[in-house]
Amino acid sequence: MKTGRKPGSERISTFKVNAESTLFDFLQQAFKGKSKTSIKQLLANKLVQVDNQFQTHVNFAVKPGNIVVVGKKELKQVKLPFHLSILLEDDHFIIVSKPEGLLCNATDKEKLKTLSTYVSTQYKAKNPGKLLYLVNRLDRDTSGIVIFAKSMDVKTLMVKSWGDIMKNSSFLAIVEGVVNPKDGEITSYLRESKAMKVHASKNQTYGNEAITEYVTVANRKNSSMLEVAQKTNVKNQIRVQLQEIGHPIVGDKKYGAKSNPLGRLGLHFYRVEFIHPITKKAIEIKSKAPRGFINYEL
Question: C-alpha distances in angstroms, 164 versus 31, 159, 214, 230, 234?
Answer without folding.
Answer: 41, 10, 21, 15, 18
